[in-house]
Sequence to fold (709 residues):
Amino acid sequence: MAGLNEISIKKLYGVGEVRAAAYARMGIYTVEDLLFFFPRAYENRGDICLLGAARDDIKSAVLLTVATEPRGVRIRRGMDLLRFRAFDDSGSCIITFFNQNFLKDKFPIGSTFRFWGKVEREGRGFSMSSPAYEPYDEQKPLPSLYPVYRLTEGLSQKQIQKDIAAALLLAKERLEDHLPDSIRTRHSLCTLAFALRNIHEPEDYKSLAIAKRRLIFDEFFMFALGLATAQKAQRQKGAPRCVDNDVSTLLRRLPYSLTGAQLRTINDIRADMESDTPMRRIVVGDVGCGKTVCAAAAMYIAVRNGRQAALMAPTEILARQHYEDMAPLFAELGIECRLLVGATPASEKRRIKAALAAEDESRLDVVIGTHALISDGVEFAAPGLVVTDEQHRFGVAQRATLAEKSKSAHVLVMSATPIPRSLALVMYGDLDISKIDEMPPGRQRVDTFVVDDSYRARLDVFITKQCAAGGQVYIVCPAIEERECEDNEISLADITLFDRVAEKQPPLKAAEVYARELAERLPHLRVGLMHGRMSSAEKDAVMQSFSLGECQVLVSTTVIEVGVNVPNACLMIVENAERFGLSQLHQLRGRVGRGQRKSYCVLVSDAESESARRRLETMRTTYDGYLIAETDLSMRGPGDFVGNAGGGGIRQSGGVSFRLAGQCDDPELMGLATESARELVTVDATLADYPELRRAAAAMFKTDSSDIS
Ligand code: ADP
Ligand code: MG
Fold:
């Protein structure tokens, strides 16, 4: 029997070429894809209110009894109305449907329905147009949560719901639960069938939470499995031994002496590169702790041993910055180093590629560029080391591609996200870790304040003052999803795995509007704007103008691109700070205080909940990135570290299918999933007995090259 991943959605009744094409735009091709296309939110139809109590700005659920026979009225050609009256204890409501005369017999007088829609006041009564309706029967309670899906052109909610219902029906016969039963029961997880049914058509809130827990467990579990199996395959390939690992010449050229943590890291790297097992090491340390020089040392070692080194950064501007930092140092050591980015002229690109592939002494030893470097048909004559600067989150998929492309080379990854050990084991299970937990001497502390919106005027004055003194200001707003939840919807992200009530969140500040208003309030300042919908060239241009000081205030939604070093920046303002993970906030704070200027971080939040306040208070009083990360993990679970939660919209690059893991608020779950996966691999290294699992784990690492740029 064909598995759900082998059945095209076109096999579903009613899905033709056109709708299939619409689904394809969302990456949905098979019935399995469709089942794993989760709602973004749920309409809260369970809270039934009286007509008189319904708000006119949001949809409500009302329970009405039909009072008059539905009557058709022709308004004009092609426009028929169907109208009737229905009531509850608070009043009477005219209900209108457009061009749906076939509903005529659906509403017999005296029958009761639950209607869902906007209730408008009309004279002394009420009206609703084209509400959703369900016959009401006291004996059979109606579900209270209705799925709402992300849409694309050519698809409606109704169609998706119908297709999903069909897919669920098919799943009844064909769905296989790939998770071994023993693991499932040990961790009190529901079956996959239950999970998929309830994520789409929840029986109630509790079932939805149970479903979500299982699906999140699976993501971590598959991820860990994928890592564990990939690791086995990679480590076996031989790597060039770099025995000549004396870096003293390089260190002597530095204008400072290394911290103990930097020395330890470099020693780790030296030992790794000496071996013919490829190095797979990540250097983790707060922004500004001095990871770059460790990477430079590794590159230097590769070159000393007749090998080539490549450094890749997530953006062009970061690549350029690394190049500017490193090229002079390498030049002093007699090592040639070139920059290869999208903007590099074609002729220069050709020359660099030829030099990288050269078998003679014209060979280029060091190249610095963006991730495009690896996907752009670049061949290395003598690959030795690939360094990637992640700067932000876990580019896990990139690592997978990289491991693939860099074959037997040594690999070094730099990450500025301090993460708790338990999490590091999960996320970086395939990498050895060097932790730089010490800052170079003389670093200033960034004074941190937590304020609410009533400080707006004072904040404006502060911004003006900093700019007048020649400083620069970052303002970060959380990214806003394509469409925010309606007031009467519950976002899937807010479904907690525990029985707690989701916190009421203050509304989000949109970066675009924010930047405009700021520019109006402070017309004497040059304000730049950067957001996720800009192309990377546009973002680079804005970032460039900020780093050159052309714009004084940078309003931005994306955190990633802020990774550039602008020593002149002395004020970091984070709006809706409650929406960010603490580690994210900590990283943002690290973007200022990098130069001589006294620097500040202001966290703006109107959140009233106890937990939001506690978290922001932690930021105010704690400066240790690891301590902050631990607190974050224990208070919010690992979601923020996985990405796509908190600040929102920070999309995981690459194709790793973390759909829900970013919403995980259970600190335990990830560890349980990882442990279970590891145990399984210990028993059955190639997952020979679990072909389904092997496939699912591999799918986690399905890379999408368009994301790697
Ligand atoms: P990050 O870890 O964020 O990549 P960098 O490597 O860019 O940090 O280092 C930040 C700054 O600190 C750079 O200007 C670098 O020259 C400087 N630096 C690095 N190590 C030391 C040190 N041991 N002593 C003094 N300054 C250092
Ligand atoms: Mg850096």
Observations:
- DSSP finds 23 helices and 24 strands in the chain.
- The two ends are 40 Å apart (CA to CA).
- The pocket of magnesium ion (ligand 2) is lined by residues 291-292 (CB under 6 Å).
- The CA atoms of residues 426 and 534 lie 32 Å apart.
